[in-house]
C-alpha cells in the first residue's frame, strides 16, 4: 500500500480546483446563458450569486475535504461516525458518473471540431452551413462514439498519473495556456469593427431583462460553474496539507471562475455583434456561431484552432476532477489501485455515456419525460443532483463543525466567520431549495 498523495503546492491546487470549476460551465454554458438571458443583467446576477452563495459553499467543501483527509465517503464517516452523512459522498459518486458520461460526449464534439479546424475543414459560407455541420456531427454514431472514447482515454491517462504527477502536472500547464489563449482571442475579438456593441451587451445593464427566473438561472449557473454539490472540491481539498490557507484558495478559485466566464464573453460577444450574428443562439453558440464568426475574419482559421484547443483544455480540467471523485471513492485507502480503478471506471462511464452520445442520432426518438437522453442526464444532474448535494454539504458544514474547528480551518476574522456561518446555515439552503423546486416544477410540467 502506498501513502496518500498530496498536491505539491498551493498554486497547483488552485489551478486544479479552478480548472475543475471553469470547464464547460464557464466557456460553453456561461456565454449562451448570458446570451439568452439579457447579457449584462445575467452577468451581474451571476457574479453576485457566485460570491454570496457559491463561494461560501465552495469553502464548505474545502473545510470538509481538508478536515476529513480522505475520499468523500470515508471523510464523512470519519467526521460524523455512525450517521448517514456519508451518503453525500455516494451521491457525489453517482452524479459524477452520470455527469461525466454526457460531459464526455461534448468533449468528443470538441475533439471532432478541433480535428476539422486543424485540417481546415471548418470553412463555410454561411451560418446555415455550420448549423448543418453540427447536426451532421452529433448525429453520426461512429464519429461521436470514437470521439467520446478518445476524450475519455485522455481523462483516464491524466487521472491514472495520480495527484502530483497527473492532475496537478496537467493543470499547471493546461491552465496557463488556456489563459494565454483567452487573452489572444479576446484581443482579436475586441479589435473588430462594431465590437463595442458586444461590450455594451456584456457590461451595460438593461434592467428590463431582469426577472426572478433570470436570477434563479444565474444561481444555478454559479453552482454548475463552481462544480459544487458533487463532492469534487471535497476530494481535491482532501489532498491539501494543513498549512494551506483554504479561505484564500476558495476566493482565488471563485475569482478565476468569474474572470474566465467574463473573458469568454469578451471572446464571443464582440465578434458576434461585429459580424451581425444573434447572441441568443443557445447551446450551439460554440459550435455554430463561433466557427461562422471566425470564418469571416483575417486569420480566422488560426484563431478557431486556438478556440477549440482552449475549449478542450477547459473541458479536460473538469472531466479529470469528476473521474477523480469516482476513483478516490472506489479505491478508498488502497492507493496502489489508482491506475486500474481509473481504467475500469473510465470504461464504465464510457458505456453509460453511449445512449447520450447516440441521443441526437439513432436514439433521437427515445424520450424521457419529454427530453432526449442527453438532455435528461444534464437536467437530472444540473437541476436535481447538484442543488441537493450543495444543500446537504452546506447544512453539514454549517451545523456539524465547532467554532474552534472553523477558526482553525478557515482562519477568518469574527465578522467573516459569522457571515459565512449564517450563509451556509440559512441563506444558501434557502437559495438552493428555490433552485431545486424550480427544477422539480419544470420536471413535472
Indicate the low-confidence ranges by residue numbers: none
- How many domain regions? 1
Order of helices and strands: HHHHHHHHHHHHHHHHH
Q: What is the CATH top level name?
A: Mainly Alpha
> What would the CATH topology be?
Amino acid/polyamine transporter I
Radius of gyration: 21 Å
CATH architecture grouping: Up-down Bundle
Percent range for helical residues? over 70%
Please, what is the average pLDDT? Answer: 84
* CATH superfamily annotation: Amino acid/polyamine transporter I
Percentage of residues in DSSP E strands: under 5%
Cα-to-Cα separation, first versus last residue: 52 Å
Overall morphology: globular
Number of helices: 17
- Total number of beta strands: 0
Present the secondary structure layout.
Layout: H1 10-36, H2 40-68, H3 72-79, H4 87-118, H5 127-139, H6 141-159, H7 163-190, H8 196-203, H9 212-226, H10 232-237, H11 246-274, H12 289-294, H13 300-331, H14 338-357, H15 373-400, H16 403-410, H17 414-444
Helix pairs in contact: 1-7, 1-9, 1-11, 1-13, 2-3, 2-8, 2-9, 2-11, 2-15, 2-17, 3-4, 4-6, 4-13, 4-14, 4-15, 6-13, 6-14, 7-11, 7-13, 8-11, 9-17, 13-14, 15-17
